[in-house]
Design brief:
- The chain has helices at about 1-25, 30-45, 50-60, 75, 85-95, 105-115, 150-155, 160-170, 195-200, 210, 215-230, 230-245.
- The chain is mostly helical and about 325 residues long.
- It has two domains: about 10-140 and about 245-295, Peroxidase, domain 1 (Orthogonal Bundle), CATH 1.10.520; about 150-240, Peroxidase, domain 2 (Orthogonal Bundle), CATH 1.10.420.
- The protein is globular and about 50 Å long.
- Bound molecules: 2-acetamido-2-deoxy-beta-D-glucopyranose (3 copies).
- One 2-acetamido-2-deoxy-beta-D-glucopyranose binds near residues 189, 191 and 193.
- It comes from Galdieria yellowstonensis.
- Pfam families: peroxidase.
- Belongs to the peroxidase family. Ligninase subfamily.
Length: about 325
């Protein structure tokens, strides 16, 4: 009998744990997310630099597992993030208007909305990213000057293939350069023109890692396929980028790169029980407990030790 009691207790505990994990992942209702996306789109329309910035910022925030640390002053002011600081004051007001969302989810919600807004494919959205609250260790994000083989090695370490590097490089089809030489993006339409330009030898604004995609037979053949077939590029980008931004349950205290084997669950397919509640009055399950962010007053306060390359005269985005 006692054993049965324990079993029942464990079972109900498991149910409680399952339910609370589920709720913790579905922090914002679908209705809230829709409202947020509508505001993103209004903002994109008013500020054409914002959508590409959101897309690129997801790459940066998620390299070490999507964790919102990109917006910490110590991290956003690093040279590899040059070009992204203007995004922070545009996005931070959302956190007070939508307290159910973590910064990591905010960045990625903006990114997938931006991708669609720019004419790109839909990406399955996962919610439940936790904010790390402390900066990622410096030096994890690949440097823009890195060779293609080193870049591929860095992607392999987080579970992505060299073909995936070709696919993700397509994000360079969009971007706004502010007088920064070698800025990879120059078009406000997400599409396969990036691959066409590579094939045609139009290397203006390309990074050397872009150009080197042509030097490997497997990669060049994929570049060619994408140049011929935008739909294939869109299908692959949706899948690979979807994986990339879904590495959300990484060990938040680890100092190593976040591996791929830790994918989130789609909450859009499993709306939270609160989805019928109007968003502004919905009970908040977040922000996640854990260290809170120090300041968001927008004043850069990065220690100079984070600027080993001096002022940011390099490319605006790291080379993916
Ligand atoms: C974004 O759009 C909302 C709704 O129109 C507006 O209130 C807000 O000021 C906009 N933010 C920026 C930075 O333009
Ligand atoms: C921008 O992208 C669109 C869609 O892919 C393409 O048709 C156009 O040629 C591109 N413009 C430039 C300047 O690359
Ligand atoms: C997380 O990473 C830290 C540091 O690498 C390690 O000590 C800890 O055991 C890890 N925790 C889990 C749950 O893997």
């Amino acid at each position: 009998m006692a054993r049965l009691g324990i079993c029942k207790y464990l079972l109900s505990l498991a149910v409680v744990l399952f339910v609370s994990v589920h709720i913790a992942r579905a922090q914002c209702s679908e209705e809230t997310i829709k409202q947020m996306e509508a505001i993103f789109i209004q903002n994109f329309t008013q500020n054409e630099a914002m959508a590409p910035m959101c897309l690129h910022s997801a790459f940066h925030d998620c390299w070490n597992g999507c964790n919102g640390a990109l917006f910490l002053p110590e991290e956003i002011d690093r040279p590899e993030n040059a070009g992204l600081p203007p995004l922070k004051p545009l996005l931070m007001p959302f956190t007070s208007q939508f307290p159910c969302i973590s910064i990591a989810d905010l960045i990625n919600s903006c990114a997938v909305t931006a991708l669609k807004f720019l004419g790109g494919p839909s990406v399955p959205v996962y919610y439940g990213r936790l904010d790390r609250g402390v900066p990622d260790p410096p030096g994890l994000i690949p440097e823009p000057t890195m060779s293609l083989s080193a870049l591929i090695g860095a992607f392999n370490a987080i579970g992505f293939t060299k073909e995936n590097v070709v696919t993700l490089s397509g994000a360079h089809s969009v971007g706004v350069c502010h007088g920064i030489p070698m800025c990879p993006g120059h078009n406000n339409t997400f599409g396969n023109h990036y691959y066409k330009e590579l094939i045609e030898g139009d290397f203006e604004g390309k990074l050397h890692t872009d150009i080197e995609l042509l030097e490997d037979n497997t990669m060049r053949s994929l570049v060619q396929q994408y140049a011929n077939d935008q739909q294939q590029f869109f299908n692959d980008f949706s899948e690979v980028f979807g994986k990339y931004i879904s590495r959300i349950h990484c060990n938040q205290t680890s100092t190593g790169p976040c591996p791929l084997d830790d994918i989130g669950v789609p909450t859009s397919a499993a709306p939270s029980p609160q989805s019928a509640v109007p968003s502004f009055s919905e009970p908040s399950f977040g922000p996640p407990s854990g260290p809170s962010f120090p300041t968001f007053d927008g004043e850069p306060s990065a220690p100079s030790s984070f600027s080993p390359f001096g002022s940011s005269s390099g490319p605006e985005f790291f080379p993916i």
